[in-house]
Amino acid sequence: MGAHASASPVRPPPSTSCFLVFLIISLLAITHIGTPVSGVTEAEALLKFKSSLTNQEAIPNWDPSTTPCSNGGTSKWVGVICEYGKVWGLQLQNMGLGGTPDIDALYQLSELRTLSFKNNKLEGPIPDLHRLPKLRSLFLTNNKFSGEIPEYVFAGMDSLRRVVLTNNAFTGKIPSSLATLPILVELKLDRNQFQGNIPDFQQKNLPSINVANNQLEGPLPARLTKLDAKLYSGNKGLCGAPLEPCASETAASAPTPITKHKSSSKTAIIVVDILLGLVILIVVILLVCQKKRRAKFMKQNTLASQDGNQFVETYVPPSEQRTMTTRKRSDPEKLDFVRDDRKNFDLSDLLTASAEVLESGNFESSYKVEIIAGELLVVKRFRQMSKVGREDFHEHSRIMGKLRHPNVLALVAYYYRKEEKLLIFDFVDNGSLASHLHGNRSQKDRGFDWPMRLKIIKGVARGLAYLYSELPSYIVPHGYLKSSNVLLNDSYEPLLMNYALQPLINPEHAKQLMVAYKSPEYAQLGRLTRKTDVWSLGILILEVLTGKFPTNFLAVGTVKGENLVAWVHDIASAEEKGEDVFDKEMGGTHHSQDEIKKLLKVGFSCCHENLDVRWSIKEAVEKIEEIKETNKLN
């Protein structure tokens, strides 16, 4: 470029030359800002970021001798999300982190897409985000960030889809740059101290907006008048539909002398209103009838009824498969596949496939389907995920899709719609552990002996340990571990299912339905811990050894953890008295009795109500691996 300029016979005026020099320097400065400093690794950048925080012990395994994203797989570093060998996101939530985060350190992470610091104690001004041009999601909910947000922070961040700043102490005006982000789908600014008018959002598709409980004022922009009034509540100065009319609107609507012309116009308006009212009434009646027909149809086709501990299964004709989803076949949205070893298919293929109801309950419905000849799948339709957003569901499913272990049922594909969430897995035709323990035994089940049960427990422990390892930022990596959520393949190898769902389930429903919330620590302290899944493992071990179904384990609602503690105590008390607590159908020779008792002790240690006494997952797996089928010397 310089050679070309010197060859030119015409020199620009001095003012133009100065302008060009200034422009070049500015462009170089901008380029430098967006380029990571050479020689700084992702590990060094993350460790520098960590050093700016307080309560750093909450992030224990950021080891400078390792890399955060080895081989492009799931990161071993707590809270680090990797994609193609690069740091893709930080998910440091519920950790009690404090201080002013050094976001400058994160500029070295060239592929950073998401930041989530929910429920911490971080403070200071909003981070200088415009230097993270690829950022898609920002979650700062429930922290102590404060001050005004400069316009430039969000300027030009065309990749931003979600901005959640709920419950901080931000002040000043809402940056108008937020109103021009082209693909913004969610903006939550509620419970802050924003002032002034709400900007006029220009997005083609209006994002989900919440500005409740601030100090905003003035009339609502025209495009926002059709949203729910609760999204603006707590702002005394706001006015206009759907809120109270503004003062100017009230003055404009004051009574005026009625002329004959206006009277006739008013009559015409009344006629139009009546006609519109009739149309609306007819539409409502049609919708109610349709809803009643659908409810009746769903009731007739709820084909999985509970009989003791078994489910009665009935075939569902292909013509009735639209009960699985209400999406039309013409909809262009596709299923998202996370496996490369499967032939992809469309949602329309799923709707027209022959299916069989496996289970229908408060938590989910499961259908066995055959899309491709000879290839059976299970479609799980979840009812209690209405509050999870598209981005959260997509990111979580993508993480689940990377999990690969012989004792974890791998995800094949998933589907998101606001009213519909589907997870698709391979079908396993040997039933669940619960059905083998408590169902009507067939001839082939007579082999469900001690060696088989030990094999199953070892597989479950290995699968659970894998989830702990691969999902280090999850308080409960499984959260729903019980015998009915352990499938057995043809060789009786256990496969964990319904794992890692706790972040997706609506909190109120999770507390009602999920096993983790029936633990003694939740009953006593109102919280889950990293040992809660170990407690579920202990309960499972006792169930497998005794053949007894845990008391109130399936009950819907907040079941006191003491009920299950009492169940464990009853088994322990009987064992101490010398009573035979083991399942008679388990068998076992004289030479295996000591090993069976060892596993029983492991079960007690895993589900101890005292968290300080209860084993960690590492201790539990080590002790389980030491147990043999027999103590007889070879």
Features:
3 domains; disordered N terminus; 15 helices; Leucine-rich repeat, LRR (right-handed beta-alpha superhelix); Phosphorylase Kinase, domain 1; Transferase(Phosphotransferase), domain 1; 634 residues; alpha/beta
Any idea of the CATH class of the largest domain?
Answer: Alpha Beta
- CATH homologous superfamily heading of the largest domain: Ribonuclease Inhibitor
How much helix is in the residues? 25-40%
Whole-number tally of structural domains: 3
Looking at CATH, which topology of the largest domain would you report?
Answer: Leucine-rich repeat, LRR (right-handed beta-alpha superhelix)
Which class do the helix and strand fractions yield? alpha/beta
Give, in spatial order, the strands making up the sheet with the most strands. Answer: 1-2-4-6-8-10-12
Structure description:
Mean pLDDT is 77; it is low at 1-38, 251-268, 293-332 and 556-560. The N and C termini lie far apart (82 Å). The radius of gyration is 30 Å and the shape is globular. It folds into 3 domains: 34-247, Ribonuclease Inhibitor (Leucine-rich repeat, LRR (right-handed beta-alpha superhelix)); 298-427, Phosphorylase Kinase, domain 1, CATH 3.30.200.20; 441-634, Transferase(Phosphotransferase) domain 1 (Transferase(Phosphotransferase), domain 1, Orthogonal Bundle), CATH 1.10.510.10. It has helices spanning 2-7, 14-34, 42-51, 247-252, 260-300, 347-352, 390-401, 433-438, 450-470, 507-513, 520-525, 532-546, 561-576, 593-606, 617-626, and strands at residues 80-83, 86-91, 98-99, 114-116, 121-124, 137-139, 144-148, 162-164, 169-173, 186-188, 193-196, 208-210, 215-219, 237-239, 305-307, 310-312, 315-316, 336-337, 354-360, 364-372, 375-382, 411-417, 420-426, 486-488, 494-496. The strands form 5 sheets. It has a 7-stranded mixed sheet, with no helix packed on it. With 634 residues, it is α/β, with parallel strands linked by helices. A hairpin with a 2-residue loop joins β15 and β16. α9 runs antiparallel to α12, α9 runs antiparallel to α15 and α14 packs antiparallel against α15 (617-626). The chain has 15 helices and 25 strands.
